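User: I'm preparing a small set of examples for a lab meeting where we compare how different chains pack in three dimensions. I only have the primary sequence for this one, and I'd like the structure in token form so I can line it up with the others. Please keep the answer compact; I'll paste it straight into my notes.
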Amino acid sequence: MAKFSGSLMGMGNPLLDISAEVGQDILDKYDVKMDNAILAEEKHVPIYKELVDNYNPQYIAGGATQNSIRVAQWIMSANGKPGQSAYMGCIGNDAFGKQLEDCAAADGVCVHYMKDETTPTGTCAVLVKGGERSLVANLAAANNFKPSHLETAESKAIYESASVYYIAGFFLTVSVDSLKIVAEHALATNKTFCLNLSAPFIIDFFGDQVATALEYADYLFCNESEAAAYAAKHGLGEDLKEVALKIAASPKKNASRPRTVIFTQGSSSTIVACDGKVEEYSVEPLAKEQLVDTNGAGDAFVGGFLAGLLAGKDAGASVELGHSAARFIIQQSGCTLTKACELKL
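Assistant: Understood. Below is the structure token output for the 345-residue chain.
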């Protein structure tokens, strides 16, 4: 591949979404709650075959970080900035992996996947009911990313060129050492490191890993349920504005800039806290009949925000771009970018 010279790098768990409209019976059968994200346990394994056999599912390139990077590049490409983003993760050497590669390339993202010859590409069951979604991820190859991949010439070219890095909390279950390599580079070169808490289970069961990653974060993203889970675990109270301020003020390795904390709340206003100040940004309501599904809404918000950040916009303007990107995505099935981007930087 040609040497990367862009500005945005993501690293995470590349998954092929297997997305289907389901009834309450499937949710009950597999003990799955709506508007949640979990890792597949033994009891969830049959769900993938059941979706394929009985539900005529859509196959959509997924993985939270990869979605955000694709959306950011979609916006940047429409504004005369092609080839600005790159993404790393681990896939299998199989048809699903090829599908992920092709989709990312079609969206203008430079992918430098680690390939596991013995493990299949990861999948995520996306269960859609009444516009809401629940995710059950089978990481498979995505779970096998190793720090050694960051030692390749291609990887070094990517992370040395980039000025903004984004990693979702889901990656904390895979390779904290890999995250630290990228985060330490960002710290040493005074570049911008962004983190997402991603899901309540990450906060509840991977607390040490979250604490390690959070110290590097210049920007922290999460939704209201993740914010509440973090607040409950750390005794920060129930007022999310106060919680955001407390997280923004928590220990940070790069003291040259304050941490910005962003809490999305679905159709309710987005909270932004930085440097002892907190602001709210309202979300333009979408008519219920225009909502297709919420899968990828949070990822798209981050993608829009990152595109704004890279264009030199302040947090408020970047939030508005995030809202617009999320509004577009929830009118599609999954995080699909088949329509031209009309968002302006």
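A couple of notes for your slides: The first strand starts at residue 8 and ends at 11. The mean pLDDT is 95.

User: Perfect, thanks.
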